[in-house]
TrEMBL record:
The chain crosses the membrane at residues 20-46, 274-300, 321-345, 376-392. This is ABC transporter permease. Belongs to the ABC-4 integral membrane protein family. LolC/E subfamily. One of its GO terms (biological process) is lipoprotein localization to outer membrane. Signal peptide: none annotated. PANTHER family: LIPOPROTEIN-RELEASING SYSTEM TRANSMEMBRANE PROTEIN LOLE. It comes from Pontibacter cellulosilyticus.
């Protein structure tokens, strides 16, 4: 029989408790419940945002990306490419040349990222599904076409498939500048705008896809490539294929999975989530101070009960545990209500999208949420630690009370 727990439960659920101690205990319980629910909701929103970032970038980014460890490009040849294609788990290898260039259309111009890609590039991403106007095909009717972002289209007022007004790309040549012929310092190539894609503003406002041969000629890269983008075959783990490629290519190349391609952004989300957890844990601590006050008052109110228990042979540890259990009951019942409420609100948000993002440019209408068991575990641990911190002093005071003075 757990005597401290039975007595603590008796104190907590006593029907005769209608005094200020009861009110403070209920306030403490409500505070813990609200704090726990808020913490679970906010952490779930951060989880949802992290998944949303991965989902957005997965439509654009490859499973694995091979780049030079130093510099922005590297040499390739047939044997080099065949060795990569023969690596177990490699399904598709796309060659990429990417650089900044000046884009002109009519009388307007802007700097864009030109991404020259091989013909199999769209086999490993969802960009064709993101085309909102025209076609994603870069070569048809024996003519080169460009796939432009929606932001680029708006900025330059581009009309897709306009044969009379092509896109003009300008890129600095690797020659000495001649002031008598300034235009000779630039390569200039024209291409027809064939389609418009809309993925995410970061890409829509900057990227233009062109055929690889067009980029080779414009940027004068020859057999150099800025990246190789790789789709991993089903049944193979990305990390396993990454290790195989790293062993094959050596330290001269850097191989990144989808998360590593956006390390800084995902790390920022995790750091923000950590600081939010610390902030809300502090708020929980403030809310739990009511447990300290209610226990302190309960110790004063139950001085005679404590003295009787001590005279009947109850040890100091037993008395101390009674009040520790009392604090735990207040905190844990509040936490149970709070975690249940947080779970319910998150489920409602997932199902009905109660809270909108409030941005017309957002890719989703409502805040994304994703509940993870780790958040519930860490929230529970935080409540346990906070409860012990605020309960231990009143419990020790109760255990140190004199029997003779209170009988």
């Amino acid at each position: 029989m757990n005597v401290p727990f039975l007595i603590a439960k008796r104190y907590f659920f006593s029907r005769k408790k209608r005094n200020i101690i009861s009110i403070i205990s209920n306030i403490a319980m409500i505070g813990v419940a609200v704090g726990s629910a808020a913490l679970i909701i906010v952490l779930s929103v951060f989880n949802g945002l992290e998944d949303l970032i991965r989902e957005i970038y997965s439509s654009f980014d490859p499973d694995l990306k091979v780049t030079a460890a130093e510099g922005k490009s590297f040499e390739t040849d047939t044997e080099f490419m065949n060795r990569i294609r023969r690596t177990p788990g490699v399904a598709v290898v796309s060659e990429v040349i990417e650089d900044n260039a000046l884009l002109r259309y009519n009388e307007r111009q802007m700097v864009v990222k030109v991404k020259g890609v091989s013909e199999n590039f769209f086999q490993q991403n969802e960009i064709p599904e993101s085309v909102v106007e025209g076609s994603s095909e870069l070569i048809y009717d024996d003519t080169y076409h460009a796939l432009i972002g929606r932001g680029v289209q708006y900025q330059l007022s581009i009309r897709p498939n306009n044969q009379f007004v092509p896109l003009q790309f300008l890129y600095p040549r690797n020659t000495k500048f001649n002031p008598l012929n300034p235009e000779g310092a630039f390569n200039s190539l024209n291409i027809t705008p064939g389609g418009v894609f809309a993925i995410e503003r970061q890409y829509d406002d900057a990227y233009v896809f062109v055929p690889l041969n067009f980029a080779e000629e414009l940027l004068e890269y020859g057999r150099r490539r800025t990246a190789l983008e790789i789709k991993v075959e089903q049944g193979f783990r990305v990390d396993q294929v990454k290790r195989s490629l790293q062993d094959l290519l050596g330290a001269d190349f850097k191989i990144q999975n989808s998360d590593e391609q956006h390390t800084s952004l995902l790390r920022a989300v995790k750091v923000e989530k950590l600081f939010v957890f610390i902030t809300f844990a502090f708020i929980l601590f403030i809310a739990s101070l009511n447990i300290f006050f209610s226990l302190s008052m309960l110790v004063i109110d139950k001085k005679k009960d404590i003295a009787i228990l001590a005279s009947m042979g109850a040890t100091a540890n037993t008395i101390r545990n009674i009040f520790l259990m009392e604090g735990a009951l207040v905190a844990f019942i509040g936490a149970a209500y709070g975690l249940t409420l947080g779970m319910l609100i998150c489920n409602l948000q997932q199902s009905f999208g109660l809270v909108s993002m409030g941005m017309a440019t957002s890719v989703v209408e409502a805040y994304p949420v994703k509940m993870e068991i780790e958040d519930f575990i860490f929230t529970g641990l935080a409540i346990v630690i906070i409860t012990l911190l605020v309960s231990i002093r009143p419990a020790r005071r109760a255990a140190a009370m004199s029997v003779t003075e209170n009988l």
